[in-house]
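ARCHIVE CARD
SHELF: 3
SLOT: left
DATA:
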Amino acid sequence: MVLPKVIYENLPYLYFLLSGALLAYGDSWYYIFSGAIFYIVACVVLVTRSAHRRLDKQNYRAIKHALPELLYEYLPYTYGAIGIFILMSTRQPILQFVAFALFVLALRNLVCRRTNRSKAKGLF
């Protein structure tokens, strides 16, 4: 089965929206579990696509991270999930600020990662 490109490219974001809708709609464990599954599937799809679409593949194996590669790849999504959990579970302003900071950090990491991986390595 082949999906049209518009649907295929936006499917992980639809999963994120479904996850958010499930978390916002209900408080039972069924909604929370289903929302978590949709969030995890969206993260896996985006990380897998990123790995296959890298233009800097020749230098990909030479990069050494302080964290294991699997943890490094999913860290921005983990920041986002923790931020969502904090926002849903508290009304304290300082913790809401921490959640906002986690969202900003996750977004920054994803934007930098996309920029670095979408262009071939230059000479300088």
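SLOT: right
DATA:
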Amino acid sequence: MSDTTIDTNVLGDKIVRVLKTIFDPEIPVDIYELGLIYDVFVNEDSEVKILMTLTSPNCPVAETLPLEVEEKVKSINEIKDAEVEITFDPPWSQDLMSEEAKLELGML
């Protein structure tokens, strides 16, 4: 192991912080708290794969949101590359939202 070994937990936290700066245009809550991010994988080469969904297949940002996520995650210095995969399995539902998001939207 070299001294340049990355701490994937620290990197994961950085990725989450970046994801929390990206908002769904229709809902004033960030995509992380909305539950749109299903999984974040970081390999030893500092390449990131993000499995995410959209609130609906007809989401107006279906084209731009994954690109925004990729670009913002790639902007983290330690990240070599980032790829976003969109899935609708399982479909997004309000159950995936954090308590914070539900509170923000007056659902609690």
